[in-house]
Amino acid sequence: MTQTSKIRTPIVCVLGHVDHGKTSLLDKIRGSSVVDTEAGAITQHIGATVVPIDAITQMGGALSKLTVSIPGLLFIDTPGHHAFTTLRARGGSLADLAVVVVDVNEGFKPQTIEALQILRNYKTPFVIAANKVDRIHGWRVQENAPFATTFAKQNERVQGIVETKLYELVGKLSDLGFNSERYDRVRDFARNIAIVPTSAITGEGIPDVLMMLIGLAQRYMTENLAMSVEGPGAGTVLEVKEERGLGTTLDVILYDGTLSVGDEIVVAGHTQTITTKVRSLLKPRPMSEILIEEKFERVKSVTAASGIKVAAPKLEGVIAGTPLRVIRGENRDAVVEQVMNEI
Ligand code: GTP
Ligand code: MG
């Protein structure tokens, strides 16, 4: 795996309308239950989870014959509630790839359309998870099965409903200027958006979503990703939090380069930039989510992409949503100016 170690973990943003199943889909992927711990089960923040490639290929089962060269996927959950447009745009701007979750029974809703606009603006490749197929009346559940397997087990009436619902999504996407197809009928992934029928509850279709994401990452991103683990770290501050024994800390998504203990960093306060030195880095263990995991592992250094908690002096007053940059020798003036421009 040495040659793969330089390839950056792609950042995958999960977007979509409220209650269409984004957090549940991630829960199924990471095997935990974040949705149960949320107030009224509504996501009110961006959460980040690293899923290692081994876990992904295991879930992919027979589908995982692809030659995989990425270390894993860093998933970012976003809220679907209409009040959180800024958080969604922030997630969208960080993402290399995205999953748009749409309840197949409800179809497109305002935040589904907003998500597609964000992805179009940033030219982010994405797949659509046509979720909650298990809610189709008469659906016969095949736990965690790839879509083709479970579709073959459904009766003709249910198959017909699935096709009709997908056809409606294809039509809606076409109105919005996107060509799309059921994922197993897509010939050219550069021209067509793949739609994968899923159930976040039964796990059906999830292996296919993961394989689509890995396929997209490999096809379009290997060059970009390969360049992005060396060099000074760059990230976005998701949250500023008090932690007992640590003082003010930053939850950061590092999307580029390396961040190490002892690094000089620059972040944004209300009116000026703040320059400080990293005292400790706390990494959530793989598959756990940075915003709910209590037990962190202390590390000396992290490479992109990672969700990482940064402890350092002088972090009071840092603003969430602003950049974090590592100062390394000659880049000082440039990075301070970049961060200043965000204030
Ligand atoms: P926000 O974070 O508020 O935008 O919602 P969300 O998109 O994260 O939705 P969430 O995962 O919280 O799911 C909303 C509800 O739909 C929960 O009660 C889930 O159990 C249910 N749900 C999600 N996906 C599925 C699915 O595939 N099948 C069924 N039957 N229920 C689902
Ligand atoms: Mg959610």
Automatic annotation (TrEMBL):
The keyword GTP-binding applies. Residues 7-221 form the Tr-type G domain. This is Probable translation initiation factor IF-2. It comes from Methanoculleus taiwanensis. The chain holds residues 1 to 343 of 593 of the full protein. GO terms for cellular component: cytoplasm. Function in general translation initiation by promoting the binding of the formylmethionine-tRNA to ribosomes. Seems to function along with eIF-2. Keywords: GTP-binding, Initiation factor, Nucleotide-binding, Protein biosynthesis. GO terms for molecular function: GTP binding; GTPase activity; translation initiation factor activity. GTP binds at residues 16-23, 77-81, 131-134. Belongs to the TRAFAC class translation factor GTPase superfamily. Classic translation factor GTPase family. IF-2 subfamily.
